[in-house]
């Protein structure tokens, strides 16, 4: 028996005592982990699928498929950040969802979010844990074709996102003190440091190289030569602006996901392949701020280029209609479509920051290239340090290959063509 199993047995026994599996469950019997391939690292946590066997008060044995999420000790993120991220995730399931559920007339929380079994965050990586019911038992699965996302997927995601964001506006009106009490417990991350660490950007110079990677290819493009000034000025301040974009709308913003991408979603499909429901998960980066943080993180880098360019305004309307419909009993407080669209144009650059820093490693990892290795300088003389850093900087500029550079350049072209606002 591994050292992990007795610990999990204690967790599940505690969960039964707290009636987390239901009031008709008498005791925990066993936990059977799935094969090793299903236990995977997610940069700041380990996810393990398995089945919990329980004995009901009637002596009947039942099984509950679960997902168990625990912290890992890794270079990324730094230990203090990892503890804060895990705190936020447990807070989301134990405090945020129950608060928002009181405002949820469309029942979006029951259909688009996982069901918590047990959550614990005490600031100790060896003890912190989240146990969720396995979404696969309800027919959910990862997106079947993430490289060619179609409008049905996009519209479904934006519809549910709009309804989710609307709940924050409603809750602020119905229970402002309750909203602020829960919001005050969210821990703000130093986002610039966290994303830099994930991307392997050790210095401010390396950070700048990463941010400007999508801009440099357009320097000599005639149609963009005179349109890069404000963007370059903005990106020169990106390190300082990241947290401003992330947390600068706290007084009037919504509870946002913060890492809103396909890897943190699962879909349920009809027999003909039509997506009919989506579930969002991994809420370690939640905070209060602009809805544009989630909208642009998803749209700019997940939607295929041609589809995004052709239907950008239509997709924003899908999001807005869902938000407005959820808030239909609060007509005088619904943000205008113009306000939402302007906010997206003002805050969308944040999504570019994140992907310029994170995408090289994400893309390389997905394609079996591994993550960029940070140079080890200890014990090197001055010349060796210079040579090592020169190689490192070259790797930063090229990591992931030409495809990553072109994806970032296309994001820049898109933002300029859609009149994003880069002044801050």
From TrEMBL:
SUPFAM superfamilies: Protein kinase-like (PK-like). It comes from the Eukaryota. Pfam families: EcKL (PF02958). Residues 130-329 form the CHK kinase-like domain. PANTHER family: LD42035P, PROTEIN KINASE-LIKE DOMAIN-CONTAINING. This is CHK kinase-like domain-containing protein.
